[in-house]
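Aim 2 progress update. The chain analyzed this quarter is reproduced below.
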Amino acid sequence: MARYGAIGEFLQATIALIAIANPVAALPVFLSLVATDDPAARSAAANRVAVAVFAILAGAVLVGRFVLELFGVSFAAFRVGGGLVVTLTGLDMLRRRDPMAEEDAAATALSAADQLIVPVAMPLIAGPGTIITAMTMTARTSSVGPPWVVVTAVAVVAAVVWGVLLLSGVLHRRIGMRGEAIVVRFMGLVLVAIGAQLVLGGIAEFFAVAS
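Predicted structure tokens:
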């Protein structure tokens, strides 16, 4: 039963992280930075972004628990707070708003090479919402298994990011702006549902512990 529980947590963590990371939404920025690159350089750029995304999210998963303990925040409280952030991020995606627009504008002064990390890897893909989701999923799986369940999910997410960026030119031509908007809104709806479940689970856990 524990194994099936871990598999379920892995699948939910993977789906949630892919939904909130939404690498498809980063395609226009990525393409603008590698538009003049040859296929080999574009592949290297995709590799760099994927590695950066994995490092950022895996770091949040492995270190996040100690940060919570340092500030005396319970997993239940963090699940509620993280769930609210995930829900709000999903609502922003449903309304097609970019919560990181100001940060992205401030990053335009960076070189094209630096922008592969900022803002493409962070915050467009591994932004605050994605980091909080990873930490929230780690708190949730603490009763099921070690954080490696979520680290594995992060590895899958990094692989998906790599694949999407590697095929960025083809995907952007095929799905177009309307297709991209549909994907963003669908992912936003998924996030709202996952965020609501995290909030309800955190509240139930808090009152179970308190009683």
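Residues 168-210 form the longest helix (43 residues). Residues 99-109 have pLDDT under 50 and may be disordered. These observations will guide the mutagenesis experiments scheduled for the next reporting period.
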